[in-house]
Every structure is written in C-alpha cells, then in structure tokens.
Amino acid sequence: MLEIQNLSVDYHGVHALRDVSIAVPDHGVAAVIGANGAGKSTLLRTLAGQTRQGGGSIKLDGEEIGTLRPHERLERGIVLCPEGRRLFPDMSVYDNIRIGAYRMRDARKYRQRLEFIYSIFPRIVERRRQIASSLSGGEQQMVAIARALISEPRILMLDEPTLGLAPKLILEVAKLVRTINAEGITVVMVEQNARLALKVSDYGFVLETGSLTLQGTSQELLSSQDVLSAYLGA
Ligand code: ATP
To answer: Which of 2, 100, 146, 201 sits 20 to 30 Å CA-CA off 224?
Structure first.
C-alpha cells in the first residue's frame, strides 16, 4: 500500500502541492487528473524522490520512504516514466530500454524482463536496432514505458502517457495500462485526458492548484457533476 499524507511541495515559496493525501492499494490503478499546472507532475516527481518535499509523509507498506534517495526508491520498485519520454534520441531502442535495468545484476532476470517486454511490445522487437529518434511519437512512448518496465516496478508512475498521441495510439496506451496492471503492477497515472484516465483506473484523484479537491472510485468520478463539467467537457 502506498500512502501519501499531507504532502506539500514548494518551489521557492510557491505552493505546488498543499496537504495532499492519497492512498493507493497494491495492484490498483490510480489516476490523477487536473488542469495544467495543478501539480500532477510534481506529485509523481516527489514520489520518485526527484523533487524535495516540504512536508508530509510517503509510506510504502508502512515504511517511510519520503526520506530515501531516488535510487533507493527505485530499488523498492517505485519507477517513474516521465512526461515527454526523455529518451536518448541517438541511441538505439534496445540501449534506451537497457538503461532502465542499469541497477539489475541478475542476468537471468534481465532476460526474463526483456522477454516480457518484447511480448507486450512486438513492434519494439522489430525496431530494436533503430535509433530512438527515428520512431514515431507513439512508438517512443512505448519505448519509454518499456524502459520503466524492465526494472521490474512494483509501482509504475506514468506522467501523461497519451500526450500528443493519435486517437488510435491513445487506446493502445489504455490497453497497455491494463496489461501492465494484470501483471500485478500498481499503476499511478497522471493525465490531462481525464476521461481515458478514469476509464482505465480504479481510483481517481482531482488536483486543483496543488490541492486535492475530489477523490473516489473512478466510476464515481466519471458520474460526478463537478468532474463532468470541469474535466469531461459536459
Ligand atoms: P502540466 O500538465 O502543465 O505539467 P502539472 O499539473 O503536472 O501541469 P506541475 O508541472 O506539477 O503541474 O506544476 C505545478 C506548479 O509548480 C505550476 O505552477 C508550475 O509552474 C510550478 N513548477 C513546476 N515545476 C517547477 C520548478 N522546477 N520550479 C518552479 N516552479 C515549478
């Protein structure tokens, strides 16, 4: 269980997150929705240890992890697939994926993870020797997710995985989230595409200017008047 309590983050005195409390059960899919600048990316970066928290706590199975360094959180299986993919454009697809396993010492496990990844991304197998920048935006997104998956995450955090993708690929990402979750991986996704995020998730959280204003099952949020009018264009 991932438990975030009263989490606050300031950027030079400006509140990016204020007293945010979120609980995500093991094997769940949580969606965090909200407008531009609401603090969604800040939340994921803070969970990954890339942004310093101002206050509050982050616990994994009751253990405080908010004080751990990013690589120690990675070792506990907390893995971030960042917004904008951040691939190395001149390196091959395979090398980009391999980077995600840089702390893995067990060669057998590495091969197993690679097989798992190739089984869910058949197009990556075909393109593994190409340089990353030669792939389409959707394919690059898949490589970024593959790089995160190879490190054997327990909690996979996806920051705007559908941003800039064509509608057909957006549906593919949605299917992928379900496939990943079926492997027992907890998913926390941040999305501007609120409808999609709530459709693939079990729990939804709404962030507004750094504060959590609404939470519930995704079904509840999909039928909430506030969510409908503010985020679902109804
Ligand atoms: P977007 O979808 O636009 O990325 P978001 O909901 O992910 O939005 P954040 O990127 O977390 O929001 O930003 C939250 C607030 O913190 C915004 O006001 C943003 O301008 C500010 N912010 C984000 N990163 C920094 C930073 N490194 N330094 C200063 N302010 C920042």
So the answer is: 2
Measure CA 223 to chain center.
24
> 234 falls in which pLDDT band (50, 70, 90)?
low
Task: Identify the helix (H) or strand (E) that includes residue 144.
Answer: helix 137-149
Spatial separation of the C-alpha atoms in residues 62 and 2, rounded to whole Å: 8
Q: In testing the pocket of ligand 1, which one of 10, 12, 33, 41 has its CB within 8 Å of the most ligand atoms?
A: 41
Q: Is the pLDDT of residue 123 over 90?
A: no
Ligand 1 cavity residues, CB under 6 Å? 11, 16, 34, 36-42
pLDDT at 231: 80
Cα–Cα distance measured from residue 139 to residue 123, given in angstroms and rounded to the nearest whole number: 8
- Structure confidence at residue 195 (pLDDT): 92
Quick one: which of 186, 189, 177, 180 has its CA closest to 60?
186
Mean pLDDT in residue range 81-110: 89
Ligand 1: residue whose CA is nearest its atom 26: 11
Average pLDDT of the segment spanning 94-104: 89
- Token digits of residue 40: 């969604």
Distance 17 CA to ligand 1 centre (A): 10
The rounded mean pLDDT for the chain is: 92
Protein residue with its CA nearest to atom 27 in ligand 1: 11
Question: Which residue lies with its CA nearest to atom 19 of ligand 1?
Answer: 37
* pLDDT of 72 above 90: yes
